[in-house]
């Protein structure tokens, strides 16, 4: 039995500037004397928006659980499709009274603009630095042969595409079209995961080189790493697309991204695993370097680049993602700003550590620059004596 009531004026003050309001008709769906929960196939309810300027849709139901105060709850309900200023589609795994809860702003909210500007500027700088790093390591023959350079090029390609998707795809013209929004979210999900996987490959390579066992795995290391780093994220994204008929990718406010459940399962959980792996590799590498420094045969001159390498590993393999786990509560905005800075400027960090601070890269780049300067014609400079002679002749 399905019933519908006209909108009720139900509001909740969440701050001085935002009211949470029921922005749709309240629809009740139930079977008399039978409690329907945990459905295998979710119930889909379409809501037309009352206030077209409201944002942040939340699918809710009226929770009258015994022993609790009745309230609107999001448990078991997700926004499967959202068309701004028009309608929203909710998917719930039970039958009860449903509605659409949204934020109504009393004044324009501008707090997100500094974060967005920082992200866009950082992504632009990061993209340029990543392209420069790729060009240097592909065009220079001595660098191109190195396994570390091959891994670095794959990582830079993945990060560069991620930044490009963010710059081009996270725009109003893309988020307004449902299919385009889902495509942007899926691509962003895939290339973020591949970037993390290549960071893990780099961490593993550094560890194997530090313990002097890399030659054992060298012949098949790049092929195996490519299959895992490019393939595993593809499998995760395909599964996410297939489950719930692509509705796991939705428009959330001004961005296209994963819904809450798939975000934890298909993104945050793999990120946590990769982060733990990278930090473990980093810890083992540091222990190895300490033991090597105690060795009398360990050259003193190698300490500085190795320390720089450790700093690079820290910036690449954990610090920015640690900030992501801290971005909640009262300090959320601060950590979100730091996360935006560290993640978007990651390309610049890679360029500095792998093209400027790394000796073998400098040894290739500097001679190339000297040759380029030597090819330029040098204008003859007249001395003061020659100038006087020329004046006397005239």
UniProtKB/TrEMBL annotation:
Residue span(s) of domain GAIN-B: 1-108
Compartments, as annotated in UniProt: Membrane
A Pfam family it matches: GPS
InterPro entries the record matches: ADGR_G7 (IPR053066), GAIN_B (IPR057244), GAIN_dom_sf (IPR046338), GPCR_2-like_7TM (IPR017981), GPCR_2_secretin-like (IPR000832), GPCR_2_secretin-like_CS (IPR017983), GPS (IPR000203)
Keywords from the named record: Disulfide bond, Membrane, Signal, Transmembrane, Transmembrane helix
Annotated GO MF terms: G protein-coupled receptor activity
Matches recorded under CDD domains: 7tmB2_Adhesion
GO biological process per UniProt: cell surface receptor signaling pathway
PROSITE patterns linked: G_PROTEIN_RECEP_F2_2, G_PROTEIN_RECEP_F2_4, GAIN_B
Domain of life: Eukaryota
Domain G-protein coupled receptors family 2 profile: 115-358
One Gene Ontology cellular component annotation held by this UniProt entry: membrane
Parts of the chain that traverse the membrane: 117-139, 151-170, 190-214, 221-243, 263-287, 307-328, 334-356
Chief place where the protein resides: membrane
Topology relative to the membrane: Multi-pass membrane protein
Xref: SUPFAM superfamilies: Family A G protein-coupled receptor-like
Protein name: G-protein coupled receptor 126-like
Organism in which the protein naturally occurs: Octopus vulgaris
Lineage, broadest ranks: Eukaryota, Metazoa, Spiralia, Lophotrochozoa, Mollusca
């Amino acid at each position: 039995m399905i019933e519908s009531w006209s909108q009720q004026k139900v509001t909740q003050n969440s701050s001085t500037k935002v009211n949470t309001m029921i922005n749709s008709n309240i629809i009740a769906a139930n079977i008399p004397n039978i409690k329907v929960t945990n459905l295998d196939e979710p119930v889909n309810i379409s809501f037309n928006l009352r206030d077209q300027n409201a944002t942040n849709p939340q699918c809710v139901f009226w929770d009258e659980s015994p022993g609790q105060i009745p309230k609107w709850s999001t448990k078991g309900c997700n926004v499967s499709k959202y068309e701004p200023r028009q309608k929203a589609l909710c998917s719930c795994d039970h039958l009860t009274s449903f509605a659409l809860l949204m934020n109504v702003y009393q004044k324009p909210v501008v707090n997100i603009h500094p974060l967005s500007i920082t992200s866009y500027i950082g992504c632009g700088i990061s993209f340029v630095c990543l392209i420069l790093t790729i060009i240097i390591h592909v065009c220079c023959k001595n660098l191109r042969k190195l396994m570390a350079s091959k891994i670095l090029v794959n990582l830079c390609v993945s990060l560069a595409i991620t930044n490009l998707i963010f710059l081009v795809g996270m725009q109003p013209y893309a988020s307004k079209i449902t299919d385009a929004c889902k495509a942007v979210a899926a691509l962003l999900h895939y290339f973020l995961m591949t970037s993390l996987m290549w960071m893990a490959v780099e961490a593993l390579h550094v560890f194997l080189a530090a313990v002097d066992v890399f030659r054992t795995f060298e012949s098949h290391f790049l092929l195996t790493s490519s299959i895992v780093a490019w393939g595993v994220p593809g499998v995760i994204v395909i599964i996410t697309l297939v489950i719930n008929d692509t509705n796991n990718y939705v428009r959330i406010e001004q961005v296209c991204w994963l819904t809450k459940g798939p975000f934890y399962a298909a993104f945050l959980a793999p990120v946590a695993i990769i982060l733990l792996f990278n930090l473990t590799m980093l810890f083992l590498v540091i222990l190895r370097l300490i033991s090597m420094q105690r060795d009398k045969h360990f050259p003193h001159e190698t300490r500085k680049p190795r320390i720089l390498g450790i700093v690079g590993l820290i910036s690449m393999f954990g610090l920015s993602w640690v900030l992501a786990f801290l971005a909640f509560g009262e300090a959320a905005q601060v950590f979100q700003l730091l996360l935006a800075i560290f993640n978007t400027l990651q390309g610049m960090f890679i360029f500095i550590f792998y093209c400027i601070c790394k000796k073998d890269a400098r040894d290739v780049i500097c001679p190339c620059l000297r040759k380029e300067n030597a090819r330029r014609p040098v204008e003859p400079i007249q001395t003061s004596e020659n100038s006087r002679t020329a004046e006397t002749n005239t």
